[in-house]
Design brief:
By secondary structure, the protein is an alpha+beta fold. It has helices at residues 23-32, 50-54, 96-106, 108-116, 144-149, 181-184, 220-235, 244-260, 274-282; strands spanning 2-6, 14-18, 36-37, 45-49, 65-70, 73-78, 83-88, 120-129, 132-137, 155-159, 162-168, 171-177, 199-209, 214-217, 263-268.
Length: 293
């Protein structure tokens, strides 16, 4: 058995436990997300092989309700304990790409937990400048990865695919999430992301391709809908399992974020200095009023 913990603030802490042949899945997740191991036995989600699940007493499964069942992988939810159980056939654990998909699926209940408590996973790249963070949201193949990797020092790329936005007393903070395609396509065997390190979110940019670099303020209704849609993209095929009540909660969270963090349309050219437009618009200052960006 192996149990790891996501040390995130407040209600967003999360523990993942692997049993039997599924310990390897949790071990890989631990390395990718730089998680800490814990001796606690209790966990929000437990991952086990099908043979282990079949050996459980019937009384231990009586409160489980099927939430997801695709290609012999099953995800159960116990609403009374607010815990999850993921059951995996042993015969698919040997394939590298399949294991990455399973690890990605292990996080889906965590995303739902974040949605329910005012957090927002978003399909977006993220970067920081002297401790101030931004996200660059866009649909696939629009260029968010290229854009964030062009940002020069002292800009720092944090993630290029997904990011988690969590509420704090002074606004929202961003936490980078892994780029799973790096592992599926064998580009990042040793890549990792420190999901537990938060950065103050100071700007949201919705990327569009353009011949000229420029930034424009985005009207709140458009920004809210764009952020909501970017969050839905992270849900993937579990989107169909999100209740109407939770869907409303996600939209309300997107609206709250937009009310507290400035949002912009970012028009980026292929070869221009797009970061100059970002820096000019943000105008981040320190306590003395000195402009940092």
């Amino acid at each position: 058995m192996l149990c790891c913990k996501l040390n995130l603030p407040g209600v967003f802490g999360w523990r993942i436990k692997g049993i039997g042949k599924c310990v390897g899945l949790v071990q890989e997740l631990k390395q990718i997300m730089q998680l800490s191991q814990t001796s606690e036995d209790a966990a929000e989600i437990t991952v086990m092989p099908r043979s282990y699940y079949d050996s459980l007493p019937e009384k231990d499964c009586s409160d489980l309700r099927i939430f997801y069942s695709r290609k012999a992988v099953r995800l159960f939810h116990d609403k009374h304990l607010n815990t999850w159980l993921m059951v995996v056939p042993e015969d698919i654990l040997g394939d590298r790409k399949t294991r990455i998909v399973l690890i990605w699926l292990m996080l889906k209940p965590f995303y739902l937990h974040c949605f329910s408590n005012g957090g927002l996973p978003v399909h977006a790249a993220s970067a920081s400048f002297n401790g101030y963070g931004i996200i660059i949201a866009a649909s696939g193949d629009t260029g968010k990865t290229t854009t964030v990797r062009r940002l020069p020092y002292p800009w720092k790329e944090l993630g290029d695919d997904n990011v988690l936005l969590l509420p704090h007393a002074d606004g929202y903070y961003l936490y980078p999430l892994p780029t799973w395609s790096e592992f599926i396509y064998s580009r990042g065997h040793s890549a990792s992301w420190n999901i537990e390190k938060g950065t103050k979110l100071t700007g949201i940019f919705f990327l569009e391709q353009s011949e000229q670099d420029k930034v424009k303020c985005t009207m709140s209704p458009i920004a809210i809908m764009s952020l909501y849609q970017s969050s839905m993209e992270v849900s993937g095929e579990l989107k169909k399992d999100i209740s109407g009540e939770l869907n409303t909660k996600i939209f309300v969270t997107a609206a709250d974020i937009i009310s507290k963090v400035p949002a912009f349309s970012l028009y980026a050219s292929l070869n221009g200095k797009v970061w100059e437009s970002i820096e000019k618009e943000l105008q981040i200052t320190n306590e003395s009023g000195e402009i940092l960006v």
